[in-house]
Design brief:
The protein is α/β, with parallel strands linked by helices. Bound molecules: zinc ion.
Length: 198
């Protein structure tokens, strides 16, 4: 790509490192950015930096938030004895959008994958077990229906069962390998309502 200036080249290079951005999209974005009004570019850069500096994990459920506790964990009207375990914050958002779930969440930030060398200690599992020491009636495992999601569900269920806490798994009907965030709200609600005890 020597036909672009070195500054354009480095911008393209940086952008193409982002997930889902191929070299064509990176080029398009780079040319868009250099043609944007200066203050818009500054605002974009500042917003990115601000988010990076101030977004942290909720100390209860580990979702991404600006505060010590996320709005869901702070909400006293929610059922804190029901914990839904999801792989990431986007999955949490997908369930929140249905408006049909009144419990709280636990975000694992990943799934167990022996193939990728991701073990139980690489996700927020110890943190989940710690939460179970307080009053918890049910843990709903809502990891994806991919191999990793299923492996994680089985692992968690085996870990929790001896404690006597009810462990359920969202119903199938969620397509295999499907990311929760891409599934429509009706399917998600159905998967939640049809959950089965493990
Ligand atoms: Zn939280």
């Amino acid at each position: 790509m020597d036909y672009y200036s070195s500054r354009i080249n480095s911008l393209i290079e940086e952008l193409s490192r982002l997930p889902g951005i191929g070299s064509k999209s990176a080029q398009r974005l780079a040319f868009h950015i250099v043609n944007m009004p200066e203050e818009k570019v500054k605002s974009l850069a500042d917003t990115m930096m601000d988010a990076r500096l101030h977004v942290c994990y909720c100390k209860e459920c580990y979702t991404l938030t600006d505060d010590e506790l996320c709005p869901i964990c702070k909400d006293k009207a929610r059922d804190h004895s029901t914990i839904m375990v999801v792989e990431n914050t986007r999955d949490l958002a997908a369930y929140e959008k249905t408006g049909k779930y009144n419990g709280v969440y636990h975000v694992l930030h990943g799934a167990i994958s022996p193939a990728l060398g991701i073990g139980p200690n690489d996700i927020k599992l110890k943190e989940l077990m710690k939460r179970l020491l307080s009053d918890v009636n049910e843990v709903i495992i809502a990891t994806n229906s991919s191999l990793e999601g299923e492996t994680t569900a089985m692992y968690i269920s085996k870990l929790i069962k001896p404690s006597g806490i009810k462990v359920t798994r969202i119903a199938s009907g969620v397509p295999v390998g499907g990311d929760l965030e891409y599934i429509d709200e009706i399917t998600l609600t159905r998967a939640l309502d049809g959950r089965v005890e493990l």
